[in-house]
Specification:
The complex is a heterodimer of chains A (348) and B (271). Chain A has twelve helices and ten strands. Chain A has 348 residues and is an alpha/beta fold. Chain A folds into two domains: 12-235, Aldolase class I (TIM Barrel, Alpha-Beta Barrel); 252-347, no CATH class. In chain A, helix 1 (38-51) runs antiparallel to helix 8 (224-235), helix 6 runs parallel beside helix 7 (203-212) and helix 9 crosses helix 10. Chain B is an alpha/beta fold and 271 residues long. Chain B has a single domain (2-266), classed as Aldolase class I (TIM Barrel), CATH 3.20.20. Helix content of chain B is 48%, strand content 14%. Chain B has eleven helices and eight strands. Chain B has helices spanning 7-11, 21-34, 48-60, 74-82, 96-103, 107-123, 140-150, 169-183, 198-207, 229-239, 250-266; strands spanning 2-5, 38-40, 65-70, 87-93, 128-133, 158-161, 187-190, 212-215. In chain B, strands 1-2-3-4-5-6-7-8 form an eight-stranded parallel beta barrel, surrounded by eight helices. In chain B, helix 4 packs parallel to helix 6 (107-123) and helix 8 (169-183) runs parallel beside helix 9 (198-207). Chain B is globular, with a radius of gyration of 17 Å. Chain B starts with a strand and ends in a 5-residue tail after the last helix. At the A-B interface, helix 6, helix 7, strand 9, helix 9 and helix 11 of A face helix 5, helix 8, helix 9 and helix 10 of B.
Chain lengths: 348, 271
């Protein structure tokens, strides 16, 4: 197997991988986006570019709504496929054009601004000889190449067709892994899709994997939370709360051990800070809470606990959490606090 | 390769989620009947309710080994022994970040304390496994020195915990293969899904020789969760010709998930 040349003993951010790469996002070509309003599509378009996406692929319907307000050179749209091209290029799935040339011949008679998408099911079907004939090629591959076959294929692609754009399809949940492996192995071009829409590698996990591996300047991941919100509003779809990187619940923490660690140094239990992806942390109370949770909750309300109060409050929280069969909501904690204060006043 | 289910421990640590003692018992019995090799039943140091729940689980499971998760403290090991589990798991933070900033200890103290805790449990007749917490951010030589210290103590296996989910597949292969080869010990993988790669990393760990894989139902757990049992088993079945013991079928896991789903719904968790 071929593995990335990096020390396994260092923190990922110390590796400093900052090579050139081009990232294409396919969200706006997913048919689910066609029903969205133009203002939301424009906002999504701007957020994707702001995040560090280089090119956006879009369907004709989405393009029609955005035409005139977007940078044509950064858009990739399906173009005409000639019958002879289909017969000459096995696996040819689509031809795209961008605003750089729209398929026109340049002075040397070569077409510019054209991307040929070739879909292959098995490594042996890759038309190696044809890859370098075209000005730009996207190779769309299934994720069942993971885990056994991808490394050898990627190595061959590096040596024989390094400029190819890889687009892993997500049939088994491994497209993100393939995309990250491709880039860490030196691949320069990748096609992904926010939330994996359309069945591709998720933009958000690929970007954060790269960010952790040192590509800090290229990306602004702080826009991810805003992008999720706009996407939800535009499509009516709710993104699962525990979805990697963009789920609104991923920075909620209840476990006492974790809260204790986070309050000492948040990096103990977070791969990146909530602020890095434009989110915020929430410390919750429940059965798994410890004294650190209680201290935090009281301090956030400007309360200094008296001796023994923390322990009593923690016991009450855990008891109520068991009774409810879930963690406590903020208002339930407030009521618990008010009840305890009232008891204390009566004792006085 | 054997599955260790951590739904009742790491899974339940998902913020807002709680299983009652009856629910834990019911889930454990289902996991046992489905043929899961080991069930991590809880954290005894959490208190008497948790300990009573673990005891009940131990009494009612026939096939699966019942283990408990414990901090590297003698008093936690004592709580574990009260539950009479089949094996005791001791978690040892191994990255400098965790050692210096969370525990406020130093490496030497970690080494001595780990040895004390393992010996304490072993002397009382319990099989022990050790989890290297935050292993993916640890200094390699230090982690390896701990593994080499544990081998003569007859620790069953080392769990490599990617605590904050930053592993990538090729790195997962490297570290598991390296740890196995250089320590001479059996190694397990505990993956988190912060980069959406918990299943991919676990699969690569198995290819590198991991003998144990931690999973949870629906992949529930801290932040973006753990390695999803059904996705992992489906991937293993689909992508490799190998047959593994201690691994339920996808159909059996679907039935398990039906038991678990109402408890997640109650906590407002959509799966």
């Amino acid at each position: 197997m071929v593995f990335i040349e990096s020390s396994i003993y260092k923190l990922p951010e110390e590796e400093g991988r900052k090579g050139e790469m081009r990232l294409t996002d396919r969200l706006l070509s997913w048919q689910g986006m066609e029903r969205c309003d133009a203002a939301s599509l424009r906002e999504i378009y701007e957020l994707l570019l702001g995040l560090g996406v280089d090119r956006l692929e879009m369907s004709p319907a989405v393009y029609a709504k955005l035409r005139g307000v977007i940078d044509e050179k950064r858009c990739l749209r399906p173009s005409f496929i000639a019958d002879e091209e289909v017969s000459q290029l096995p696996g040819l799935r689509c031809v795209y054009a961008d605003g750089n040339g729209n398929g026109n011949a340049n002075g040397n008679g070569e077409q510019t601004g054209i991307l040929y998408e070739i879909r292959v099911a098995e490594p042996q079907a890759i038309p190696w000889a044809k890859l370098n004939e075209k000005s730009a090629v996207r190779l769309t591959v299934p994720d069942h190449w993971f885990p056994e076959r991808y490394a050898a294929v990627f190595a061959q692609m590096q040596s024989e067709a390094g400029g190819v754009e890889l687009c892993p399809e997500d049939h088994n949940g491994f497209a993100g892994a393939l995309a990250v492996e491709w880039l860490l192995a030196g691949g320069e071009n990748i096609a992904v899709s926010f939330l994996g829409k359309g069945g591709f590698a998720p933009l958000e996990t690929v970007v954060m994997a790269l960010w952790l591996h040192g590509w800090r300047e290229k990306f602004d991941p702080s826009l991810f939370t805003r992008l999720r919100e706009v996407y939800q509003r535009a499509t009516g779809e709710v993104v699962p709360a525990y979805r990697a990187v963009v789920g609104k619940g991923i920075f909620e923490v209840e476990s006492g051990v974790h809260v204790d660690g986070i309050l000492k140094n948040a990096a103990c239990y977070e791969p990146f800070s909530p602020e890095t992806v434009g989110a915020s942390r929430s410390i919750r109370l429940g059965k798994h809470s410890g004294r650190a949770n209680v201290r935090y909750a009281l301090s956030a309300r400007g309360i200094s606990p008296r001796s023994g109060e923390e322990e009593a409050l923690l016991a009450s929280i855990q008891e109520q959490s068991r009774r409810l069969g879930r963690g406590l909501l903020d208002e339930e904690f407030e009521r618990l606090l008010a009840g305890l204060n009232s008891e204390a006043e009566q004792c006085v | 390769m054997r599955l260790i289910d951590s739904t009742l421990r790491d899974g339940e640590q998902m913020a807002g989620l709680l299983f009652t003692a009856e629910e834990k018992l019911r889930l454990a019995v289902c996991l046992d009947q489905a043929g899961v090799y080991q069930i991590e039943a809880g954290i005894p140091a959490m208190g008497k309710e948790e300990k009573a729940s673990i005891v009940k689980i131990k009494e009612n499971c026939r096939q699966s080994k019942i283990s408990t998760w414990n901090r590297m403290l003698e008093r936690d090991i004592e709580h574990a022994i009260d539950c009479r589990p089949d094996s005791i798991h001791i978690s040892a933070p191994v990255s400098d970040l965790h050692i210096f900033q969370k525990l406020r200890w130093d490496r030497r103290f970690v080494r001595e304390q780990l040895k004390r805790c393992v010996s304490y449990a072993k002397e009382r007749g319990y099989p022990v496994s050790v989890g290297f917490e935050d292993a993916s951010r640890a200094e390699w030589e230090f982690m390896l020195s701990l593994a080499r210290m544990l081998k003569p103590l007859e620790v069953e296996f080392i769990r490599y915990a990617d605590t904050v989910g930053i592993l990538t597949p090729s790195r997962a292969y490297q570290v598991i293969e390296g740890l196995r080869r250089e320590s001479g010990m059996e190694v397990g993988i505990h993956a988190h899904g912060d980069l959406g790669m918990a299943v991919a990393n676990s699969l690569m760990a198995v290819r590198a020789g991991a003998a144990y894989v931690d999973v949870t139902l629906f992949g529930i757990g801290e932040r973006a969760g753990n390695c999803d049992m059904r996705d992992f088993v489906a991937a293993v079945q689909k992508m490799t010709a190998e047959k593994f013991g201690g691994t339920p079928t996808v159909e059996a896991i679907l039935a398990l998930e039906k038991h678990c789903e109402p408890m997640l719904r109650r906590a407002g968790i959509r799966v």
